[in-house]
Amino acid sequence: MKILLVFLLLFVCPDMLAQTIPGRVINRETREPLAFASIQPENHPRVLTNIDGSFQLDLEQLPQSLTISYPGYQAIEVNVDRSTRYLQIGLDRSGRSVKDHSEDLIGEAINRNHQNDPERALEGFKFRTYSKFIIDTKSNAGSPIEIMADTANGRAFLSEKVSENFFRSRTGTKELVTGIQTAGFDRPVYNVLAMEINPFSIYKDDYRLYKTEYAGPLGKGALRNYEYQVLDTTKSDRPAYIVHFKPKREKIVAGLEGIIYLDTTSLAVQKVRAQLLGEIRLEIDHNYEYFPGKDLWFPSEQSTIIRPGSGGKEVAVFDSSIGVGTIQPKKSVLNLIFGSANVDKNLFLSSTTRNFDIDLNFDGIIPTPGATIEVTDEAPNKDPDFWNEYRQSEYTLRDRVTSENLDVLLKENKVARKIQVKNAISTGYYPLKYWDVDLSKIFKFNNYEGIRLGFGGKTNDLISEKFNINGYTTYGFKDEVMKYGIGSRIFLNKRTGTNLNFYVSRDIQETASFNYLKGRNTFSIIEPRFVNINFFYNYRTYWAGIQHNITPNLETEFRLGREEIWQIRDYNFSVDGRQVGEYDLSTATLSFLWRPFSRFLSTPEGNRILERKFPQVTGQIQQSFEAFDGEFDFTRVGLKLEHEIKRLDLSRTEFILEGNYGFGELPLTHVFHAYPNNPNRPAILRRFSVAGRTSFETMYFNEFYSDRQAMLHIRHQVRPLRIAYNYRPELVLISRFAIGDFSNQANHLNIPFNTLEHGYSEAGFEINKIISGLGLSFAYRYGAYHLPTFDQNFSLKFTFLLQL
């Protein structure tokens, strides 16, 4: 049977008899590679070298002559025949001085972006897309037997997608995925949709490709970031300039090297081919189709190939520790759980997208415009007729055997379990059969409880996909008190994040804390401030709430609750002529998180963020009622604005502005602090602890309280310091300001504190990632609340940035 298949392959594919001739074109004098040099065989299409000067010719007719040329160099002819195994071709400079107008040409092309970029030139358009995502071996099998073996083995990963794409100038883009399937998996792998392998436009200032932003070769800053050289002009009905571009500041700004075909009349992009040889190896091709009625070139096909490079950057569908879907691994904490993945070094990732049914006059309404990418409920369940109708490339025999082979591979490697663990850990849990253990509840330490050990978690989908039961119990060895919490979450609609929640708990809470229900990170390996907090109060609470995402960009939560509060320290609140330390509260809380410019993926299983963009706004209002046996009537409002400016040189500036306002009968337990993080000890080294991101490092615990306050945090991270290839510490400059006041300070008995009416200031810097995720933080208090000695105003701490 195998012999029959060999002869069949020889008969059906006679081009297998073609001879492959590799080679390289260089500058004869300097030995430097000549990127995109032209190699023109007599009877074959022209071939251009890669950015390292390499090339590969597949020639059926031999012998024949090759013409090798490059601008500014003398063209030569080389003869090849069946005996040729490798070509090293050196070119000499021509010696002629020709004025280069390349930058003028590119400058004019950039000026015409508004009429050539479809997203600027058109009011609206729509089209369908077919995408094929594979991971395969880069085998250059030359014999039919080797090819047959590859076919029998199938691919390492295969995913297909069909989608409808919409654009309106006022509302932006929308991709509606109508069909998706992943070989070997019962459910589609949505991670592929979030990998950003095939960017739509080459015209943008920032060209975002697989977790990295590169300078756009036709963006606003292109002439500052790239060098250009016109190589040739094509001979066709719509001739184009072939322009070579390469990074000018590659150690500062990430860039690609390639060639761009610019229409000689409109200077619109006809085609782009770009490459990168670095941490990963990239090959990118963009092809455009001309529409005479609009005098516009529109993207028709995009393909990206990623191969292993020098290392340091992970290329994986799930996580490199999982193995399947991994091209290039990276060291990770998860390797301690899964072990290091053994990855075939010959694997490469290939993604091809073809656009069809293009309509450049779309003026309709974009369906459900909230999420950038939305997977319909029916998309994972399409039948073979659907795929046969919309596939824009051949579904090969090798594709067919992939599903069966992958099914066996996934089971042997327990991939489903590894994915479950990885997804759970990313949210702070570790799954044990039916129960996901809450990692944040296992161990903590603070000055009041001492060591705090516990166990908590929630039931997972193996129990039910419609609800979970969650809870915890924990014990403080210093205060010798057992704390607990138990509740349930009912999933009404996973796509919109609509859940009903019920909870009962007895625990302790930091005095004057204001915790936003939305926009908080519930899991952290190290909580910097928690260790040094020493002013808590006891509470028992009962609450019910509902969560709902109005759009993927706007998350909301509403709670009704009752709190029973009693003090740990000797605190009393003087109100209406009485002093109380124990009281009950009836509260209603509404919280929201609004991320208007962030990009989201919406699937039947829920929403996930594709790209976090700023500004981001978090808000919350809480009302305490005297009704329902509540003792105090007060209102607390909080609003937090976060903004970040990211630059192509990897520097960034962050701003966090937060305001809190409370009025009514407000006990000290429910006023505000400014997130102090300085232990109340005299010596600098005795105060050595972990620095926080939004805390005041020189402000002592319990030093200031306010019933109205505003805080501003400014962090500027300069470009990472390149000390060595894999050693790049980060310097962050920090400034923090806070101002506040207190209306009835005398009503809070036995607890002395200051207010912030004169304004609090501190400044400092961090050096992060000195050793792995560890760094150092330095800060100094100045201004109105400056203290007498240097030691009192200075803080020295370490930072901890751990990436899973």
From TrEMBL:
Keywords: Carboxypeptidase, Hydrolase, Protease. GO terms for molecular function: carboxypeptidase activity. It comes from the Bacteria. It holds the Pfam family DUF5686. The keyword Ion transport does not apply. This is DUF5686 and carboxypeptidase regulatory-like domain-containing protein. The lineage of its organism: Bacteria, Pseudomonadati, Bacteroidota, Flavobacteriia, Flavobacteriales.
